[in-house]
Design brief:
By secondary structure, this protein is α/β, with parallel strands linked by helices. It contains 20 helices and 16 strands. The strands form two sheets. Strands 1-2-3-4-5-6-7-8 form an eight-stranded parallel β-barrel. Strands 13-12-11-10-9-14-15-16 form an eight-stranded parallel beta sheet, with helices on one face.
């Protein structure tokens, strides 16, 4: 039984395939002294849109650098959906003499097409591994099962990949027996850890006779991640199956633990739900990274997906035509300047009783006067729970909830006290993207009200040193939306201090 570590490839989903030189050096130095036969260093890929880092393309100089650092068999992987036989020469010829195995990530529906790719790879002298995804669905895919014998004589390893991270040991055994009945090719296992079953599933695969299994340092990998290299090695050591020096293992684990604190990979409740229901991790990975999507929202969305339903609540459309037009509105964000300037903001609201107030965030709604104006509360993600907490479950006179158009991918939650005053928009069309965010919902409401000017408060932006990736993403998202709002004819003015460039800055105090 052999072990393959694919940290740099699978972990790249968190770092965009960029790793600091010191971590890469530590990684290869440690594995030179560990009982792991193969190291998968990344992808070789045709150019794709957007930025993808060093180990997504593994340019020629990287191949040479890694070869000089490592005494292990080296592996790269191709994504079958993006590679054709005619691409092999340019992608793989530079790898000859440097790379030992080429794996192919394969949708089971494309197994036959992948066989043609494998034939070309084999002729170039590489070992070939088939990483066939979605193993929890194989039993129902009769065409795929009948095609498995096509791999005989072409593929060195046929991997069972638990893409959703939801199989159990009995599933591993049943699938192993099924594959073994179709081919004599060596079988591998790649498990994800959504349900914390990575170790037991891998040990089960080994007991069944698996010839190779995958791991990553600290479990670093897409979504909930994979079986931890250090956990499998420790387990096999305790069973007397491996003997090694724990010092290099400790060094590489320490290096990646630092990264883990930054990117926070590993399982959580949403990943558990997605694994248990065989749902893709891609959406969950994106949703977990959004600050305004709570676990409740994500789980509601996953439950809807698992049941094959679009959403759990269609609301009446708000009829903006029956409401007098508002020349100007106030859009309320969640920044701390609202609390700091609450007295001045309330003075401004009292002097402009014709203003409609739109809460992109309910976080600071308790600071504002609610006795004269109409208030719209934009509910996205966890905002319904926040609104409920802010007003302790009570309805606030004049308040209306506004939600994105049906169906909402994150599901629907509205405080019970607001249910009779909850509506959805017909559409969000001032922007081509980010149309289910707090800000886009608030801006669309302002546009539908006929506003020509929107005063923003509590849209502080970020300043005072470096910001995290999530904050930077939200900052750029909002900048884009402000630009599109202006193009739609809405003048966007911040009355409180802001670092957003696409908001015109005026002083709240100059208007009092």
């Amino acid at each position: 039984m052999k072990i393959l570590d694919c940290t740099l490839r699978d972990g790249g989903y968190y770092t965009n395939w960029d790793f600091e030189k010191d971590i890469v050096k530590t990684y290869f130095e440690a594995f030179n002294n560990l009982p792991v036969e193969y190291l998968e260093i990344g992808y070789r890929s045709n150019p794709l849109k957007g930025y993808l880092g060093e180990f997504f393309y593994c340019p020629d100089y990287v191949l040479h650098q890694v070869k000089a650092m490592s005494n292990k068999k080296l592996v790269i992987i191709l994504n079958e959906k993006d590679v054709r036989v005619e691409d092999l020469d340019s992608l793989l010829r530079p790898c000859i003499g440097l790379i030992d195995m080429v794996r192919i990530a394969i949708d089971p529906k494309q197994l036959k097409r992948a066989v043609g790719l494998a034939e070309g790879i084999k002729k170039m002298g590489f070992e070939v591994g088939f990483n066939v995804m979605y193993m929890s669905t194989w039993a129902s895919q009769k065409d795929f099962l009948n095609e498995i014998p096509l791999i005989n004589g072409i593929t060195d390893y046929f991997y069972m990949v638990d893409s959703f991270g939801g199989v159990y040991p009995e599933d591993v055994k049943a699938t192993f027996d099924l594959v073994r009945s179709k081919t004599d090719v060596k079988i591998g296992f790649h498990g994800h850890n959504n349900m914390e079953l990575g170790l037991i599933n891998t040990l089960t695969a080994i007991e069944c006779g698996a010839d190779i299994v995958d791991v990553t340092v600290t479990g670093m990998g897409r979504g909930a991640g994979n079986l931890k290299t250090e956990l499998l090695l420790t387990s096999l050591n305790a069973k007397g199956m491996l003997d090694f020096d724990f010092n290099p293992l400790s060094k590489v684990v320490d290096a990646f633990t630092t990264l883990q604190k930054k990117y926070e990979w590993g399982t959580n409740l949403p990943y558990m739900v997605s694994g248990a229901n065989s749902l893709p991790q891609k959406d969950v990975m994106e949703w977990v990274g959004k600050r305004y999507y709570s676990f409740n929202s994500i789980i509601r969305a996953l439950n809807n997906q698992s049941k094959g339903i679009q959403d759990n609540h269609e609301l009446p459309k708000y009829d903006f035509d029956k409401k007098p037009k508002s020349d100007a509105v106030i859009i309320v964000g969640g920044g701390p300047t609202i609390v700091h300037h609450a007295e001045a903001i309330n003075n401004f609201i009292d002097k402009h009783s014709d203003l409609t107030i739109i809460h992109a965030s309910s976080k600071n709604a308790f600071c504002l006067n609610h006795n004269l104006q109409e208030h719209f509360y934009c509910l996205v993600g966890n905002e319904g729970h926040r609104l409920e907490d802010v007003f302790q479950g009570n309805y606030v006179e004049g308040g209306k909830c506004i939600l994105p158009p049906f169906p909402r991918k994150m599901g629907t939650y509205i405080p019970e006290s607001f249910l009779k005053n909850a509506f959805e928009l017909n559409k969000v069309d001032f922007t081509p993207k980010f149309n289910d965010s707090h800000t886009s919902l608030a801006v669309q409401t302002a546009i539908n009200l006929g506003a020509k000017k929107a005063y923003f408060i509590g849209y502080d932006g970020y300043s005072g040193g470096s910001i995290g990736e999530k904050e930077q993403e939200l900052f750029l998202e909002n900048e884009f939306l402000f630009e599109k709002a202006a193009a739609a004819g809405l003048e966007c003015v911040s009355l409180t201090p802001t670092s957003y460039n696409n908001l015109t800055q005026e002083s709240l105090f100059a208007l009092l």
